[in-house]
Predict the structure.
Amino acid sequence: MVEVFAVASGKGGTGKTTTTLALGMALIEEYDVTVVDADTGMANVLFHAGLTGAETTLHDVLAGEAPVETAVYDRFGMDVVPCGTSLAGFREADPTRLREAVATLAENTDIILLDSPAALGSRSAVLPIVLADQLVVVLQPTVPSLSDGLKVQEYATTYGTDVAGILFNRVTENAAIDAVAEKAKQYFDGKMLATVPESEQVREARRNNEPLLAHAPTSEAGDAYREAALALSVGTGHSDAVADRFRSAVVPDEI
Ligand code: ADP
Ligand code: MG
């Protein structure tokens, strides 16, 4: 079986990468997990997962210069496919090759988490959301963030991607979280997966080039992510069927 989740949001800096790796580490208790840095223009999985020295990355794969298997690194119990950060690498990358890359990875894992680009402004930005089975929307507890997230949800549902749920990140004590959560329940499909606090441990983890659950497994933020992982429904799609779907997926021209 394999299930593909896109972790996305309307804007950058909401905590998509932090969330992707935290969910991934929570899910390895039960599943084989592969994390892919599909945010090919603003890649930062490599910083969060101690992979800045990676020789081959998704950029090389998307440029047609390396098979995806050579860009998979065993980190913190997960298979991690980092992406490079150079503009040249981004320019050379053909986003449509992501279909074949994910199809290949799907043959050998239970869960694929696609750390997805923020803006829905280009083919490379929408592809992970179009290809995934389910969408996890990362939001900050503000009305503008909800409004951005709704656009992502609308896009996903147009292409048949289910909404697993929403996750509030960087919640501070004085955030009007109850009012915002009430609104979110009205407008978003899926579950309220978790409320992750603004946390020094999250920042520290990033500075140490480690995922949160490796750096501070017993933190409040870590607990919230474990709760979110438990709330995800992992489907039982057959790997071959998922691989075929990815290979034959049509990439939207107009967005
Ligand atoms: P994105 O991938 O959406 O751009 P990141 O996960 O890289 O966002 O997070 C952006 C920055 O915010 C990072 O420096 C990260 O450490 C910090 N951050 C994310 N979530 C939290 C949190 N809950 N508390 C404190 N800092 C956070
Ligand atoms: Mg990121």
Q: What stands out?
A: The two ends are 31 Å apart (CA to CA). The longest strand covers residues 162-171. The pocket of adenosine-5'-diphosphate (ligand 1) is lined by residues 12-18, 44, 169-170, 196, 198-199, 202-203, 206, 221 (CB under 6 Å). The chain has a mean pLDDT of 93.
